[in-house]
Structures are given as C-alpha cells and as structure tokens.
Amino acid sequence: MVLMIVDAFEAIILPRRVTRKIRVARLFYRTTWGLWKAIVGKFPNRKTREALLGGYGPCSLLLLLAIWAFGLVTGFALMQYGAGSAINVHEGTANFTMDFYLSATTFFTLGLGDVLPRSTLARTLLIAEAGLGYGFLAVIVGYLPFIYSSFSRREVNISLLDARAGTPPTAGELLRRYSYPEGQVALRELLAEWELWCAELMESHLSYPVLAYFRSQHDNQSWIASLTAILDTCALVKTGVEGVACQRQADLTFAIARHAVVDLSQVFNTTPRGLVEDRLTATDLQRIRDTLGRHGLKLAGGEEADQQLMALRKMYEPYIYALAIHLRQVLPPWIPQKKGKDNWQTTAWARESGLLENKEVTTVVVDEHF
C-alpha cells in the first residue's frame, strides 16, 4: 500500500524529478516501452508503426493507474486476510478471494453489501480504504487534464514551426525563411518564444516523463525534431551569421534548450552516444552557406568557425540522439535534402484527387513571403 501511494504521489502530484531508481512507474515504463517497441517494429508499414507508437503514451498512463489501483486493493485485501478474514459472506466461505472482493468493492465505492466486516479492525480497514479509494481516484484523475494541457501547449509551437522552418524543421530553412527585411527582429522574437518553450518542456517533462511518449499529430513532426532544429539554428547564429543580430538571444535559447536535453537524458537514463552518420557533412555545410548567401546572409566560414560549430554540436547532439533512439524518433537534417511541401500545403484529399494543380504557384508565393 505504501509503495503504491508513494509511487503515485511521486509520478503525478510531486512537481519535481525523482532520482530514486527503484520505482514502480520507472520499472513499468522501462519494461513496457521496450516490449512495445519490439512488437511495433515487426510491422512493415511506417504509418502503422507510428500510429501504434502514438497510442502508447495515453494507454500507458491509464494502465499505470490500473496497476496502482490493483496494488492498493491487493494491499487492503492482504490486511483483511492478515486480520483473520473477519467478514460475513452471504454465499461461500471467508477466504482471501472474498477479502479481495470486499477490498475491490470498497475501493471503487460500490458497496454491494453481500460481504460485511464483523470485527472492529475489519471495519476500520474498510473505512480507511473507502476514504483512500475515493481520494486516490479523485486526485489522480483530476491531474489528467493538466497533463493533457501540458501536451497541448507543447504542440502549439511545434505546429507553428511548420511554416517557419519547413517539414521536418531544419536550421538552414529557418534562417533562409527569415532572411527577408526586418527578418532578424522576427527571428529574435521566435528564439525568445522557443526559450520559454524549452523551459516549459523541461519543467513539464521532468515532472511528468510520460509526456515524452506522447507523439505529435503528424508523423513528420515531433518535439525531438523541433528541439533539434532550434538548437541547430542557435548553433549557427552563435557561430556567426552576418545580418542576424540576435546572438544574445541565441545564447539564451541554446542554454535552456541544451539544459532540457541533458536533464531529460538523465531522466530516461539514455547515455550520450555518437551519431552513426554525421548530420552535417562538409557538403551540407557548404550548401547552407550558399543558400543563405543567395538570400543576403553570410555564414561565418574558415577553420575556426567550423571548429566552434563542431564544439557546439558536441554539447547536445550525443544527448538528443540517444533520446531519439530511445523514443523511436528521427533527428532532422540541417538543411532540406530536397524541395518539398510543408504540412499546411498538403492534404490527403488533394493527394488522392490531384486538386493541387497550382502547387508550384503556391510554393513560389510562400517562398517570396518568407
């Protein structure tokens, strides 16, 4: 009973990270997530895999609630059994099965009356369980809307980033789209908004790690990809982009974003690991320089700038890559590998019926706007 109460309190109510390793919730997620990933990995279709992975977060939260309730019911049943099963049974005999039945009906406030306590200790346990069951369910269920509101706030900026950095979001595309006159002012405001987003992400996901398993509405979007794109952008700005006067804001956003990545990797016990493939090759870096140069922005070059950029990347890439592997997410590139459409430019109906015959015109207008 104490184990379940403490675990539920730490997982739902306590607004801070719990470093204790032996926890029911921690064991539950480590076991079920690994098993679920292995099962889902057998499906060949990517959309099916994403749909199944997306259902894990909400289902796991409900299943964990059921485990806590089952543990409390079992605990009270064991106490009744230890007290000698002092109960009057309408049909059958007093045994542990009847103790468990009495405990369950009391915990969920059914009160059927076919099994009744006949000693003072048994009545006291029944009253305690009724009060605890009512309070436990009310408090835990009452926190579910708060958890879902935290998820919704996280997804708002991710959706807004679609038209600002492409799909999936990339640092090179973000800087290119903010190369218009007065774009540096808007870019500074964007980085300030993402500084606040990263702080909220760290606080909410440290307190409620289950939120990390909640996936975005679109398969090509995720909080991992968006956070990576913002870190990449800050790294480029910190390295030096001529015409972009928001280095100080980039420093602040990079600091809190990196802080969130490192702390979350500790929560999920994901050891930093080197990337299998370099996300930013020399060819891609030159493409970024050429693309930004054509839009009036000059990215700092030379060996010193390249070393500074590499040093910044080493501060976060190994951590966020380990998180991505653990959560079955994909890190975005630094620059789009080919020209594509943002999510707002496409619909399933249009793809099926060919309604977007003027897609080239639409893309040109959007590019000119940015």
Please supply descriptive tags for the structure shown above.
4 strands; single chain; two-stranded antiparallel ribbon; 370 residues; disordered C terminus; mainly alpha; Helix Hairpins; 2 domains; two-stranded antiparallel sheet
Give your account of this protein's structure.
With 370 residues, this protein is mainly alpha-helical. It folds into 2 domains: 142 residues, Orthogonal Bundle (Helix Hairpins); 175 residues, no CATH class. The protein is 67% helix and 3% strand. The chain is built from 15 helices and 4 strands. It has a two-stranded antiparallel ribbon with strand order 1-2. The C terminus is likely disordered.
Number of helices: 15
* Terminus-to-terminus distance: 58 Å
Low-confidence stretches: 355-370
Strand percentage = under 5%
| Fraction of residues in H or I helices | 55-70%
Arithmetic mean pLDDT: 86
Rg over C-alpha atoms, rounded to the nearest angstrom: 27 Å
Count of all domains = 2
Main sheet: strand order: 1-2
Derived structural class: mainly alpha
**Tally of extended strands?**
4
Largest sheet report = 2 strands, antiparallel
User: How would you spell out the order of helices and strands?
Assistant: HHHEHEHHHHHEHHEHHHH
Describe the global form.
elongated
